[in-house]
Amino acid sequence: MNLENLITEKRNKDTFGLDKMSVSEAVTLMNQEDKKVAQAVEKVLPQVENVISATIEAFNKGGRLIYLGAGTSGRLGVLDAAECVPTFGVSPEMVIGLIAGGERAMTIAVEGAEDDLELGKRDLIHLALTKDDMVIGIAASGRTPYVIGALDYAREIGANTGTISCNFNAEISQHANLPIEVDCGAEFLTGSTRLKAGTAQKLILNMISTISMIGIGKVYNNLMVDVKATNEKLVERSKRIIMQATECDYETATLKFSEAQENVKLAIVMILTQTDKKTAEQKLISAKGFVKDTL
Question: Keywords of this protein's UniProt record, alphabetized (predicted)?
């Protein structure tokens, strides 16, 4: 394994003497390095857009979005997938995060899992991957065997594939239809890709999941109208969203939220179209879930 040419493994000349810096000096320097991440992501927005378009297409065909990676990259994919459930009201099966080594690897490194070329393939077979699914491999280094094996299998059965890596000419890019390669420069702490590389991956994952959900009607204006009210805070947020979308008062929002069986989007359509629950449901079905198209 030759790591010397990987951007993510190079030493950062600006952070030499890190262990001799004061806390103030270190946090200032780290903040300066972090500022470079958004600028690096900006350079790959056309590639991100292509992945989002493919993901929306997969959703419209009834397919799933599947992230997979190892270590920090895998954890970020699992996190993004998990947060789609309450934010957009989707089932846990619609957006899935796989990490080399399974759930245990979320907190404890599983020795050898990321180097297993067959493990990624087996994980996708276990999910009964289909050609309608979108598979995105995440690897800061761009060379993780677990990811490569999975991508090769996905392409073999006809599923669309994308990647997110933090090195140019990444090996995983050769195994996907839609690669994203973002260069954030050498890490603040040499080789610690949970830092700038991880931040870049999180920013890109935020874009992919959020904008793909917008593309299938999960957002009205800039409101998360498919939010699931799974706790007291989200119940109150749901009512506030109804108020913001319809300009109704709190009492009306509370009443319609209850009548809609805590379905925010449905309550909004009931108010804006002045219809009952059944009629509003039919309107949403006809509009394929887009509030704007029911009006």
Answer: Carbohydrate metabolism, Lyase
* Spatial separation of the C-alpha atoms in residues 39 and 41, rounded to whole Å: 5
Does the active-site annotation cover 33? no
Strand order in 178-181's β-sheet? 95-99, 65-69, 134-139, 160-165, 178-181
Catalytic residue check, 181 = no
CATH fold, domain 232-294, is Helicase, Ruva Protein; domain 3 (1.10.8)
| Amino acid letter, residue 267 | A
Contact criterion met (CB below 8 Å) for 187 and 28 = no
Residue pLDDT, tens place only, 116-126: 889 999 999 99
Options 83, 171, 259, 262, the catalytic residue: 83
Contact between residue 69 and residue 79 where contact means Cβ atoms under 8 Å apart: no
Domain range 9-215, CATH architecture: 3-Layer(aba) Sandwich (3.40)
